[in-house]
Specification:
The protein has helices spanning 12-23, 29-36, 40-53, 66-99. The protein is mainly alpha-helical. It folds into two domains: 8-62, Homeodomain-like (Arc Repressor Mutant, subunit A, Orthogonal Bundle), CATH 1.10.10; 64-100. α1 crosses α3 (40-53). The longest helix has 34 residues, at 66-99. It is elongated. The mean pLDDT is 86.
Length: 100
């Protein structure tokens, strides 16, 4: 069986610099990948993320893009409001039964 390689992490600046070499300097993705020691496909993935997300690309491990963070916060607020509504419904049902 093959040896298991340790997963490498690259900083946001490292990825941006690699993409800049391809986009702004006109170097080939294969040449840049060979120079920095990554697979050429990785350069293409980084470039695609850079074009899709612009300055919000490469947010880092465990971090969210601003729009994703906002969506997550809104989903949490919605869940909280639904929970409060359900509690109030149950309380109303309990108090309605007691009055009879």
């Amino acid at each position: 069986m093959g040896e298991k390689k340790e997963k490498r992490y690259f900083s946001r600046e490292f990825k941006r610099d690699a993409v800049d070499l391809v986009v702004k300097k006109g170097m080939s993705a294969s040449k840049v990948a060979r120079d920095i020691g990554v697979h050429p496909t990785q350069i293409h993935v980084w470039r695609r993320r850079y074009f899709d997300d612009g300055n919000d690309a490469f947010v880092g491990k465990g971090n969210l893009k601003p729009e994703d963070a906002k969506l997550k916060q809104l989903q949490k607020e919605l869940a909280d409001v639904k929970e409060e509504r359900d509690i109030l419904k149950k309380a109303l049902a309990v108090f309605s039964k007691q009055e009879k």
